[in-house]
Design brief:
elongated, alpha+beta, three-stranded antiparallel β-sheet
């Protein structure tokens, strides 16, 4: 990109669109923008769920954020959920504490930031789509493109927007 080697990052499977680097890592890298990706649902870990009891969830959160307010029912704990263009959670408030989607993913060992939250009076369930950070080339998406007859050049140029393939001096 611009005559320089790129950081050719990749992940296992996106959730229909890759994530832009700025949405996940906060750095705007032009060639790591959101692009369509199909075939990712062939990944065995594409759909996953993590369920925690409300008390277990409360203890994990209090261990990391002692000033968090997790009173009342779990359905009241989650507010202001913001998503990227590709659908991954970029930020949310839990118990009044602002968190990045990547923090939630790490804290609860979620497969991706592309998650939804459902609650009962006694539990919290995160349902994820995709597997990995979602930035750059999707391995399952690239596999589908190859199966559809696309060349490696077409695949690379699709996932790394605005790049060119050339010899490096």
């Amino acid at each position: 990109y611009d005559g320089k080697a790129i950081a050719a990052v990749f992940h296992a499977a996106s959730a229909e669109h890759t994530e832009a680097a700025v949405s996940v890592w906060g750095s705007d890298i032009p060639y790591l923008s959101s692009v369509e990706s199909t075939g990712d649902d062939a990944c065995p870990k594409y759909d996953a769920s993590v369920t925690l009891g409300a008390e277990e969830f409360r203890q994990i959160m209090l261990g990391k954020y002692p000033d968090i307010n997790l009173t009342g029912l779990p359905k009241t704990w989650f507010t202001e959920i913001q998503s990227s263009e590709a659908g991954g959670v970029t930020s949310c408030k839990i118990g009044g504490k602002a968190l990045k989607g990547t923090e939630v993913r790490e804290l609860f060992e979620l497969n991706s930031t592309h998650f939804t939250i459902s609650t009962t009076d006694t539990s919290i369930t995160f349902h994820t789509e995709g597997y990995g950070h979602g930035v750059g080339m999707s391995q399952y998406g690239a596999k589908r493109m190859a199966e559809d007859g696309k060349s490696y050049e077409e695949i690379l140029l699709h996932y790394y927007t605005g790049t060119e393939i050339s010899d490096i001096d």
